């Protein structure tokens, strides 16, 4: 079995995201497959969560953000603890600490694992390819876009889940913070001095380094699922495990994305432009919310659910 790791960074606001993924990673057997779960965090000690997780998940590897940044020599101005540093740290951490791993998967803290994808670690480990989901909101195909398209609102490739070998992470990952912090240096027409986003840097680096030839594109409908109104989701049970599938097509989701514990996010997706879209959107939002709560309150490490019940729309369209 290859040496593999999931990597994410998070602060306390993303506790339901981290906890939900840890529980799902065991629930779907990825822990049994030997996959490690690395978390760079700034959770307060008073929360007690990290110590609980250490006891329950033997392959859980947490490290405090400050500790890593100081040890790596990158924490020059500790007073500037910004969200962007937290987001960029996962790329530095993976390149510095996991170079000898056969496969690494970068996940956002507001993603949710909903299926075992260990076999994709194995595919990447054997092939040395770069696995990334296609962006369903982009009109361009991944093999025909250019630098201008890469810097538009919806680049053809998403930045995660990002599955790559450790040796390739050493080459690629340090470039992502560099590009993100200096976008006009690498793409002069870009009119912003900095960006906290990952998608533009990832797309540009693939193009400018020639690593685009190593791309293994993943279907975005299964790997990030940001469409809540174009297809209908269904809840399935297979061998006493809960899954999310796409109705009619039969495909199962691997990961979905979003803070589905938050009422505000749910409300944004609860009504569509016509009756069919509205039906799909309400159905899909409810499924994503229920799975988020399920993975946080019914499995191995349970957290207090402070986020209320699923919001309902009134006839006026408001909760």
Strand and helix map with partners:
Elements lengths: L3 E7 L4 H13 L8 E6 L7 H8 L3 E5 H7 L11 H15 L5 E4 L4 E3 L4 H10 L2 E4 L13 H4 L11 E3 L1 H7 L2 H7 L1 H4 L12 H11 L5 E4 L1 H4 L9 E6 L2 E6 L8 E3 L5 H6 L6 H23 L22
Parallel strand pairs: 1-2, 1-4, 2-3, 6-8
Antiparallel strand pairs: 4-7, 5-11, 9-10
Helix pairs in contact: 1-13, 4-7, 8-10
Characterization of the model:
The model is unreliable at 314-319 (pLDDT under 50). The protein contains 13 helices and eleven strands. It is an alpha/beta fold. 37% of the residues lie in helices and 16% in strands. It is globular. It has a five-stranded mixed beta sheet, sandwiched between helices. A two-stranded antiparallel sheet has the order 5-11. The protein has a two-stranded parallel sheet with strand order 6-8. It folds into two domains: 4-219, Spore Coat Polysaccharide Biosynthesis Protein SpsA, Chain A, CATH 3.90.550; 223-297, no CATH class. Helix 1 packs across helix 13 (275-297), helix 4 (83-97) packs across helix 7 and helix 8 packs across helix 10 (199-209).
In a few lines, what is going on in this structure?
It is built from 13 helices and 11 strands.
Keywords, separated by commas or semicolons:
two-stranded antiparallel sheet; 319 residues; 2 domains; disordered C terminus; globular; five-stranded mixed beta sheet; 13 helices; alpha/beta; Spore Coat Polysaccharide Biosynthesis Protein SpsA, Chain A
């Amino acid at each position: 079995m290859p040496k593999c790791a999931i990597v994410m960074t998070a602060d306390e606001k993303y506790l339901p995201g981290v906890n939900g993924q840890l529980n799902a990673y065991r629930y779907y057997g990825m822990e049994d497959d030997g996959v490690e779960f690395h978390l760079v965090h700034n959770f307060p000690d008073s929360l007690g969560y990290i110590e609980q997780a250490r006891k329950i998940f033997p392959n859980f590897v947490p490290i405090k953000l400050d500790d890593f940044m100081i040890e790596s020599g990158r924490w020059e101005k500790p007073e500037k603890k910004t969200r962007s540093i937290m987001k960029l740290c996962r790329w530095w951490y993976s390149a510095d600490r996991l170079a000898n791993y056969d496969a690494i998967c970068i996940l956002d803290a507001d993603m949710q694992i909903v299926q075992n994808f260990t076999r994709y670690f194995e595919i990447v480990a054997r092939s040395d390819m770069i696995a990334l989901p296609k962006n369903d909101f982009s009109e361009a195909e991944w093999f025909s876009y250019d630098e201008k398209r890469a810097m538009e609102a919806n680049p053809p490739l998403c930045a995660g889940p990002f599955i790559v070998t450790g040796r390739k992470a050493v080459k690629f990952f340090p470039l992502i913070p560099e590009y993100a912090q200096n976008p006009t240096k690498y793409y002069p027409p870009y009119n912003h001095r900095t960006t906290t986003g990952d998608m533009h840097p990832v797309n540009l680096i693939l193009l400018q380094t020639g690593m685009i030839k190593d791309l293994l594109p993943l279907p975005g409908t299964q790997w990030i699922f940001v469409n809540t109104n174009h297809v209908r989701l269904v809840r399935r049970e297979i061998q006493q495990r809960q899954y999310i599938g796409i109705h009619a097509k039969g495909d199962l989701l691997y990961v979905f994305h979003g803070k589905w514990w938050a009422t505000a996010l749910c409300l944004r997706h609860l009504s569509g432009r016509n009756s069919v879209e509205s039906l799909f959107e309400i159905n899909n939002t409810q499924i994503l919310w229920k799975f988020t709560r399920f993975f946080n309150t019914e499995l191995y490490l349970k957290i207090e659910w402070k986020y209320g019940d699923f919001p309902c729309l009134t006839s006026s369209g408001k909760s």
